[in-house]
Amino acid sequence: MTKNTTFLNDVSEGLSQNPKYLSSHYFYDKAGDELFQQIMAMPEYYLTNSELEIFRQQSEAIIESFGITKDEEFDLIELGAGDGKKTQHLLKTLIEKGFKFKYMPVDISKNTLSVITGRMENLFPDLEIEARQGDYFEVLDDLLTSDLPKVILFIGSNLGNMDDQTASDFLEKIAFHLKSGEKLLLGLDLIKSEDIVLPAYNDAAGITSAFNLNLLKRINNEMGANFDLESFEHAPEYTEEEGIAKSFLKSKVDQTVFIADLNQSFKFKKDERIHTEISRKYNDQILNSLLSADANLEITEQFLDSQQYFADYILTKK
Ligand SMILES: C[S@@+](CC[C@H](N)C(=O)[O-])C[C@H]1O[C@@H](n2cnc3c(N)ncnc32)[C@H](O)[C@@H]1O
């Protein structure tokens, strides 16, 4: 099945449910990639700066926690690599310290992957890079076949975009490919109050809103749909008790949308919502609850930013 057919089927399936939903997976076309870059640069989006501070200030300690020696070659595999602005600090320190490694970024977006490859080639001309385009749920099995020691990076709280069961299964799947003692560096946004979290998903400049609405624009462009972007609005939610930021697209009026490639119409009532994204926030207890017995992973270290907004966890295979 081609990617487009999958996208069509997922849209048909999601908009036929009650409540309606669309997978956040589809945010990242070229426009979505660019909007996400802008989101990461917004003052309200504390996640980037918090994790960037950890990578800037604690790269040496993070590398020590990998337990890799300078005379052994290893693979550094990054899932959902994005633009690599944080990872570049880790790579720089690894190179300065004389570690021998290959950097393997994986991303679903071809565009993002060419940006990150260009950036790293530019910064580190001698770095060996093997980029892989694809869905990390799908490429993991044939990506992790080398016998070299490996460290896997999964940062930016990307895990938070999965529901807890999917996150737990995904961690188990990653762990399946780790040998005893090998590490996963997992960057997670921590549970904190609404006044800090909610603005990160509802910025004053309206970039998150444009990012969310871009999903409808993408369906218009790629499937001949007639979503009127003016008659939907971005509607985020978060409570500290639940610890999950949720994004919705809310219909401002009763309306019917036609998707030509599906030859199907979808009715929306006024205030009806399409659920588009979750961003879970974590603490040690929640993370531990996601580590199944079969995963055989344990938290061995944790690096925090100075405001304690964000944590980069080192998980070690037992
Ligand atoms: C929220 S961004 C974070 C990027 C980076 N990890 C960071 O912390 O800056 C998510 C990235 O993961 C990629 N992505 C999302 N879902 C993916 C999937 N299922 N497989 C591979 N990459 C994915 C997106 O294209 C995007 O570059």
TrEMBL record:
Gene Ontology biological process: methylation
CDD domains assigned: AdoMet_MTases
SUPFAM superfamilies on file: S-adenosyl-L-methionine-dependent methyltransferases
PANTHER family for this protein: ERGOTHIONEINE BIOSYNTHESIS PROTEIN 1
Pfam families cross-referenced by the UniProt entry: Methyltransf_33 (PF10017)
Keyword tags: Methyltransferase, Transferase
Domain Histidine-specific methyltransferase SAM-dependent, first and last residues per copy: 9-316
InterPro entries found in the cross-reference section: EgtD_Methyltrsf_superfamily, MeTrfase_dom, MeTrfase_EgtD-like, SAM-dependent_MTases_sf
Name under which the protein is recorded: L-histidine N(Alpha)-methyltransferase
GO MF annotation list: methyltransferase activity
